[in-house]
Amino acid sequence: MAKYVYLFNEGKADMRALLGGKGANLAEMSNIGLPVPPGMTITTEACTAYYEQGKKLPNGLMDDVFVNLKVVEKKVGKLFGDPADPLLVSVRSGAMFSMPGMMDTILNLGLNEQTVKGLADKTDNPRFAYDAFRRFIQMFSDVVLEIPKSDFERLLEEQKHAYKVTYDQELPAEALRGLIDKYKDHVKSKLGKPFPEEPREQLSMAVEAVFRSWNNDRAIIYRNLNKISHDLGTAVNIQSMVFGNMGNDCGTGVAFTRNPSTGEKVLYGEYLTNAQGEDVVAGIRTPQPIAKLKDEMPEVFKQFVATAELLEKHYKNMQDIEFTIERGKLYMLQTRNGKRTAAAGVKIAYDLVNEGLVTKRDAILLVEPAQLDKLLHRQIDPSAKLDVIAKGLPASPGAASGKVVFDADDAEQWAKNGQKVLLVSTETTPDDIHGMVAAQGILTSRGGMTSHAAVVARGMGKPCVCGCEAIKVDFDRKEFMVGSKVIKEGDLVSIDGATGNVILGTVPMVEPTMSKEFLTFLGWADELKRLGVRANADTPEDAVKAREFGAQGIGLTRTEHMFMGQDRLPHVQAMILADGEAERRKALSFLLPMQEGDFYGILKAMEGFPVCIRLLDPPLHEFLPDMTELMVEIAEMKITGKDAAELPAKEALLKKVRTLHEFNPMLGHRGCRLGITFPEVYEMQMRAIFNAAARLTKEGYKVLPEVEIPLTIDVNEMKFFKERIDAIAAEVMAAAQVKFHYTSGTMIELPRAALLADELAEVSEFFSFGTNDLTQTTLGFSRDDAEGKFLSDYLDKKILKENPFIVIDRKGVGKLMRMAVEGGRKTKPDLLVGICGEHGGEPNSVEFCHIIGLDFVSCSPYRVPIARLAAAQAAVSTGEVLGTR
Ligand code: ADP
Ligand code: MG
Ligand code: MG
Description:
By secondary structure, the protein is of the alpha/beta class. The chain contains 33 helices and 33 strands. The radius of gyration is 34 Å and the shape is elongated. The site of one magnesium ion has 4 residues, from loops.
């Protein structure tokens, strides 16, 4: 039989999987000589066995417990169940990952009518003994016998009322004695049999209750939310009791070794005198700040400070400690790495390095990359009073206030007139982008965390609350309702994208500041990481932001947004509607100077760093009016006879829109296929890039344009374009009489490109993985349909572990990526390879990119710090690169 029971002195901190976090740390603290009441831990394996055997305690388990209990009895000098001087124990659950809401701890186990007398005599304190007993009955009944806690609380209240006292601890001994009888009567009436008096039986019932609690609803929900495996099981700690409720030289408390919200190095916590266990958090009495302990029990405080320091040194991390004081003596009951805010996390990591407690390598592992998000967005002043009217999903962090508008065009218009607006809609579509750009934030009544609004807003670093079902949008009346409240267009509303709150009126904001600690910390990450981190940026403003956040270049400049806007769209439409090449070239000639201006701005803002510019990617119909709308419009014109003169033009437009209509645009005429059909469109873009590069070079800027061809599947496509790229570059350089460096390459976003990467590399100087399309085409999932319809079933039924559009599917998509890296570098060992999909800013995917040997990741500017940290963590924790170089 496996060893199911470990005495505290047999365990260690790194045995968390077997002993649970609490048990492993109790063992560790015992072994470094801290005052921990002796005890033992039943392993998580015993819990697993319990379930495997159909919810039966493994044979011999309790025998083992009692054998080990003998050792504990010896250490403490008391016997379990001894009527004269009983050993009492606590029974505490403790899984590998701390799981609030699993099982409440049972204290004072081992008490019954005989032992309580012994305890009273021995301590000469009947009041204390009865208090301990009534607490035990209450906890045991709640946790093990599943009789509602509130029943006992009511009886307690009645007793306090009868004795005319406010606080529990004012009840005299005989009142508590009476209460015990009432508790027991209540148990008997509920259970149909008396409260178990036999200490051994109490103990095995409690152990089983802990095992059972592993699968209670709260625990299952918590594990699902936090992606903790349901197979781990929980450990059970059985520990001899110490008492914080024996008088005013006793107490119990919890403390962090540093302030968990700011990171400041001061003890932070609270305690209660003459109290036991959970009284501190239960809010029965207001606890004292830990600093008070210095006055009340100076000796204990000194000892506590020393212990806190020792624990920090030992664990090399900020600790969250639970302790009890019995008759002026300090006991440690728990320690673990303390949870902290993002700001505190960075400050603590920084301080620990400066205090010489940890190395930079260790320090960068102390902060969760995703948490940094919180530090990079404007936040609502935490001290402000808010009028919260509804709550949606916290889709994109940060806070925004603005006048409510219900239409993307209105948002753009109002913003042009200098108004701050909040775009409110049922949901957003790609047609709303300009309105989202113009708005301070986005609020939708439908759609989840991966809805269009949410994804785009996060990409823009713009606050967003989505799926706020409490609001009813009425587009005709331009208003929304929450309950009976009506909010009209132009009313001021704020949203908090970190909490999902929708707030009436404006709210005071605080700017995010990159503190000295934060900047230094990210600097350490840069020293340790191997991956380059670039940003996806389409405008000079984004490029500047990206540099502020530490981007080392642009990994993706999309050019399609540059084809939108009032001054351009008409020319773009003229280009699309053109009859033949000559007419198309004419339309393009209007676009050329504008594109050149775009690239000039971006290359200049990123001077000294590479800028990867992707040529036009989306299907052309995206630049034309919607087919159905157009049909309706024409039908109306025909019926009403209004604007008859415009009818032929409209009909011609409809004809063109029809011919461009595609059954599956995602797999249709888009990407470089446009450039194959209409080479002059791509040529215009190439010329615009090189003209801008030539001008900047002349002006003394160092520019590094990378011309990127999207959606290739064959080396012959690349040959077709490469010829043109080089010819136009040569022409521009000759005309301008300057030389600049440029490269050309391709996105890898279709399986065939990944499969034939060795060939594509013959005419590519770089690859960049477009993992959104690569995921769609590898899985055969269209993202919008998958996320809207069936992906949640795949996740719920555990067919897929993660949403592959958020975390790279290492097994499938990742396999293609590995192949492409290997194939490409076989042909061209110095091939530059990066990723520019949304995955490039997601920590788990960044780690994968590190492992397969990419050169860089690229993500939205706001995610750059996250990617820098994730890249450093990947380098530190995975060590050697497994890739091909
Ligand atoms: P949780 O996981 O909910 O924090 P714990 O098992 O840590 O539950 O128990 C909660 C509290 O009960 C502890 O912080 C401590 O105050 C008290 N407690 C647990 N075991 C003992 C013990 N052996 N002696 C005294 N108090 C204890
Ligand atoms: Mg605890
Ligand atoms: Mg793509």
